[in-house]
Amino acid sequence: MPTCAVCLMKVSREVKFRTEIKKRTYYFCSSRCLMQFQKTPEKYSPVHIRTPAFVGIPSRVHLSQSAFTALILSVAEIFKKEAMGYLLGNCKGEVVEIDHAIPFQTGKRGYTYSAVSLRRLEWVRDLTERIHPGLQWIGDYHSHPQHGNVLRLHLPSILDVEDMEPGYVYLVISVNEVQVCLPWRTSRKRGTLAGTLGKLRMEIAGYCLDKEQNLRRLEVDAPWLKRK
Q1: CA angle at 139 for the pair 136 and 142, rounded to the nearest 5°
Q2: Pairing of strands 136-145, 84-92
Q3: How is 70-125 classified by DSSP, letter by letter?
Q4: Could you read off the pLDDT of 38-55 as tens digits, one per residue?
Q5: Residue 35 host element (H or E)
Q6: Predicted pLDDT of residue 228
Q7: pLDDT, mean of residues 20-37
Q8: Are 85 and 141 contacting, i.e. CB atoms less than 8 angstroms apart?
Q9: The dihedral of CA 216, 4, 115, 111: what is its sign?
Q10: Residues linked to residue 206 through DSSP beta bridges, in sequence order
Q11: pLDDT given for residue 111 in this prediction
């Protein structure tokens, strides 16, 4: 379900308040938010379209120890709400190297959604390029936390796929409560990285879109774990 471009509240796709700028559709929960957007669109919409982080289709994602630690801690901290953050790194051939995972602190969150304004998203991108000139905004991540007795999967929803863009990597982390402690390992069969943190079992999966907007699965690995 999309969110209002102004107040970030959840809105239905059938809502009549919407507008389109540079082939991107913006939704609004009320006529008031629509009028506010039309008055100062530069406050809520990106100024320009970013250059993709990679052109070809990678096959694997390597998480550094720093990125892995930041990612799972941010997901565990706000369980049972959805976590969201961005990824910094580089694409080297068929491998996406993720050096840092940084959670969004200003987004609105619920049990099944998270949202951040596009304007603030662009501002953060500009800051990261200044702080880490050798790294790129390589993509983002979000979690699928357990809700009640309903276990969540690491598969992206239809809305998750609609929000994806070619040239970036997207990590989806399922988070469910368990009673056993499991070591962190890469599953070659599933192409995921899974393990527990306390009583939370997490499974990290990677995805991207090809030029035809088809969803591609990427193998997620943490090479430094093998040396433990």
Answers
A1: 145
A2: antiparallel
A3: HHHHHHHHTTTSPPEEEEEEEEETTEEEEEEEEE-SS-EE-SS-EE--HHHHHHHH
A4: 888 777 766 555 678 888
A5: helix 31-39
A6: 44
A7: 82
A8: yes
A9: negative
A10: 171, 218
A11: 54
User: Which residue shows structure tokens 């069969």?
Assistant: 189
* Radius of gyration of the chain measured on its C-alpha atoms: 18
Query: Is residue 80 reached through a cis peptide bond, with omega within 30 degrees of 0 on the bond before it?
Result: yes
* End-to-end CA separation in angstroms for the chain: 41
47's tokens: 């100024």
Q: Which long-range contacts (CB under 8 A, 24 or more apart) does 174-179 make?
A: 174/143, 174/144, 174/202, 174/203, 174/205, 175/75, 175/76, 175/79, 175/143, 175/144, 175/145, 175/146, 175/200, 175/201, 175/202, 176/146, 176/151, 176/152, 176/200, 176/201, 177/146, 177/201
- How many angstroms separate the CA atoms of 174 and 203, rounded? 5
The whole-angstrom separation of Cα 52 and Cα 228 is: 34
Tokens of 128: 């990261």
- At residue 72, the pLDDT reads 95
What whole-number distance in Å separates Cα of residue 6 and Cα of residue 139?
23
Q: How far is CA 189 from CA 72, 107, 150, 183, 220, in A?
A: 22, 34, 24, 17, 11
Evaluate whether 8 touches 116 at the Cβ level (below 8 Å): yes
Among 45-54, 92-101, 148-157, 196-205, name the one with the lowest average pLDDT.
45-54
Q: Collect all residues with Cβ–Cβ distance below 8 Å to 24 and sequence separation of at least 6.
A: 45
